[in-house]
Write a structure and sequence with these properties.
The chain is α+β, with helices and mostly antiparallel strands. It is 60% helix and 15% strand. It has 10 helices and 10 strands. The two termini are 86 Å apart.
């Protein structure tokens, strides 16, 4: 019995996977076969019933056979034993019996067409209609599946592939939008420190230049520093405009002296020290040498770490710049005397939009992107960012950059 069921199931699968034109032919042939069987059974039963019924009426039929699909009759009885009404009755009954095969043919053909439509057309159409309706409602989680390898199954498969592509495109679009949001937020975030520095230079010149308290050398030096910051802002804005994500940021290395670069770090720290209530201390260690370095990228990381430290510091921030010539590494450490990193921030501080719930007055107004940007840019320069809490209290961020001597 199981063997028969298995064979029937396999046959059903084969029929289900047939192309529609062959499947329609199978359904129609099945209907014709059913019509033939039903016709033979019903005609035999109806003829036998008619003969018995007519015999009860006193009408004897002695010969009765089939030619094509019509019955031929011979009626025997006593002369004058049959009236015209009797003859007409007999012919009507026998003609009705002869029409049964045609009736069964019509009914079975209609039934085959209905079954074919319901099983091979209506079911996949319902799947497609439901899928299209869900997609129209922006629900792309619906799966468009129809278990058949015929034309309708292939059509459902095409719809399913289209849905998956739409899901991929939507995910890519959301990722692009998210990256653009990060780029825009980072741009607004990273403008703060350079603008603060430029504002410090501007206030210095506005305060002391009219009274003649600024020497020519100091004026030229200040203007050069302002010009370098403006050029850096222009380069940064151009970079942010051209890239679609931080992954597209590339390190553009060039020769720079270690002490020269340390001077830029000191100058930025000095201006920020004057601009706020947090005291900033800078320590530089290591021998001078020419390094292949992307100054703008390193300064971007430095300013992000410094602005993050100033935001949470109570009164002071320490900066340490170290040049390890043997390892070819430039290390930058920033420590503040604030509350330090929470356990969650130590684990997820480098993720985008990660923020502390405590801190200084500006702690709730930033984007939570400073450490994330610093981590990405450090990796672009062959370095790493590490977060910890200082043994003296406060947060400690250390970042390294690999370089080649030029």
């Amino acid at each position: 019995m199981d063997w028969i069921n298995e064979k029937l199931e396999n046959m059903g699968k084969k029929i289900r996977n047939l192309p529609l034109k062959y499947a329609l032919l199978v359904y129609l042939l099945s209907g014709f076969l059913a019509a033939a069987v039903l016709s033979a059974v019903s005609v035999s039963f109806a003829a036998h019933w008619c003969m018995l019924s007519l015999r009860d009426m006193g009408i004897e039929i002695y010969e009765f056979h089939i030619s094509g699909s019509f019955f031929l009759k011979s009626i025997e009885g006593p002369a004058g034993g049959f009236t015209q009404d009797d003859v007409r009755l007999v012919r009507f009954v026998m003609t009705s019996v002869s029409l049964l095969p045609w009736l069964w043919m019509l009914l079975c053909t209609a039934a085959s067409a209905i079954i074919f439509y319901r099983q091979r057309i209506a079911a996949p159409c319902s799947v497609l209609e439901n899928g299209a309706e869900q997609i129209q409602r922006d629900n792309l989680d619906v799966e468009i599946s129809y278990d058949s390898r015929d034309e309708m199954g292939k059509l459902c498969g095409s719809f399913e592939r289209m849905r998956r592509e739409m899901v991929k495109n939507q995910e890519a679009m959301w990722e692009m939008i998210e990256e653009q949001k990060k780029i825009n937020a980072a741009f607004a975030h990273d403008l703060r420190t350079p603008l603060t520095v430029l504002k410090g230079y501007s206030d210095f010149l506005y305060r002391y230049l009219p009274g003649g308290k600024v020497s020519r050398e100091k004026l030229v030096s200040t203007l050069e520093l302002m010009s370098s910051h403006i050029e850096r802002l222009e380069h940064y804005s151009r970079t942010m405009r051209e890239i679609r994500s931080f992954d597209e940021w590339t390190a553009e290395k060039g020769p720079v002296g270690f002490l020269e670069f340390a001077g830029r770090i000191r100058e930025t720290a000095r201006i920020l020290d004057r601009a706020g209530d947090i005291h900033i201390y800078v320590t530089v260690t290591g021998e001078d040498c020419m390094m292949e370095l992307d100054q703008d990228l390193v300064l971007e990381v430095f300013e992000n770490l410094l602005s993050n430290a100033i935001r949470y510091a109570f009164s002071e921030t320490e900066i340490t710049l170290e040049n390890d010539i043997e390892a070819g590494m430039l290390r930058l450490c920033v420590r503040d005397d604030g509350p330090g990193f929470s356990g969650e921030m130590l684990k997820e501080g480098k993720e985008p939009y990660a923020r502390e719930t405590h801190g200084g007055s500006g702690a709730k107004d930033h984007f939570g992107l400073g450490l994330h940007i610093a981590d990405i840019l450090a990796e672009k320069h062959g370095g790493t960012l590490s977060l910890a809490n200082s043994i003296r209290g406060g947060a400690f961020a250390s970042v390294s950059f690999s370089y080649r001597k030029s």
